[in-house]
Amino acid sequence: MNKALEGIKILEIGDQLTQFTGKMFADMGAEVIKVEPPNGAESRNIGPYYHDEKDPNQSLYFWHYNTSKKSVILDLSKESDREKYMKLLPEFDVVLEDFNPSLLKEWGIDYESLSKIYPELIMCSITPFGQFGPWSDYKMCDLTQLALGGVMAVNGYDDVEGAPPIAPTGGQAAHMAAYFAAIGIIGAIFHRNIGGGKGQHVDIAVHDCVTVSTEMSIPYWEYQKAHVKRHTARHALPNKSSRWIFKCKDNRYILCLNTYLDEKRWRELVEWLASKGMEGELSDERYVDDHFRATRMDYVCDVLEEFCAVHESEYIFHYAQSINLPWAPLRAPEEMLDDPHLTEDRKAFVEVAHPELDQTFVYPGAPYTFNKTPWEISSRPPLLGEHNEEVEKKFLGSEALVEMNE
Known about the structure:
Blueprint: E1 9-12, H1 19-27, E2 31-36, H2 60-65, E3 70-73, H3 79-88, E4 94-97, H4 101-107, H5 111-117, E5 122-127, H6 142-148, H7 172-194, E6 201-205, H8 206-211, H9 217-224, E7 229-231, E8 234-237, E9 245-247, E10 253-255, H10 263-275, H11 290-295, H12 297-309, H13 313-322, E11 328-329, H14 333-337, H15 340-345, E12 349-354, E13 359-364, H16 388-395, H17 397-404
Parallel strand pairs: 1-2, 1-4, 2-3, 4-5, 5-6
Antiparallel strand pairs: 7-8, 9-10, 10-11, 12-13
């Protein structure tokens, strides 16, 4: 079967802001060529490393974000290599980049310059603050974007006195931008294919992506002029909300959403508690009413806390789900890897061979399942410059091959 994006060709000349978008396209069948400087992309220098040995080909960070891609070496700061890069462009649909906006213009390979020569070209630029505006040359990291975009302000604790905001981890700002970039590129491809063959520039600012992804803080301010407050393991809201996290008998924590329950689910919850003799006064008919229950939510939480303290988390999780309660245990990474729902049924983790190491490693699998156009990691991340000769032969011919290998 064909893959979803088979036939699409992408030149990824970016690094940490483009790598996840490039991975998504590559794993869905697009041919993604990662153009790297002679010493490799900076992401190759981010640990941890296989066997803790620093090597540009053994960064686990690089491995994760660069599956199914190919690697060629070109130093775009040199005019001679920019000329070679320009010869590749006619063969590709998309350029994916994260350079400072003024730098590409200085080199003459910005979208405005390239579109005059290749009007069908699509360029997606992922930068901290976009291609224009007073901040367009500002620098960033994941933490600064989460702070400036408002995400950090709504994460923290309400049960620790004087607790400061905290930051989510895992490169969330870059991930947000990557998803929006993927959507934008697909839209630009559709437009080109059905709208007369014209490409366009997709300008992705990480700051824009973070700012529109702050859940409810902006709407609350826009419509009520109310600031949200941080709540431990709960949504940030203007008013204090009830606790959702309780400790179980096995010393694991479970998330028990106990608000917004309709009458049927509330009665089933009380019936379950009563079967264990732990319903307290919740069998009182007045608790069926949302408004009454809201005035007694501290007591409801006390009952649930006592119930969870004497039962195993997995039992609570599965029984709660059987009566349509959206409850779930807080899991550690190793528990995800051992979950048969993910590993056996959903194939959320896959094995990828590294022939040069004579080993196979477990990678995160597909975040989506297509029954007509299957997803797969077609190859392990490329070694630095591994595909120079292949790309030169395929796209430039033997004459260019000699030129590029001088």
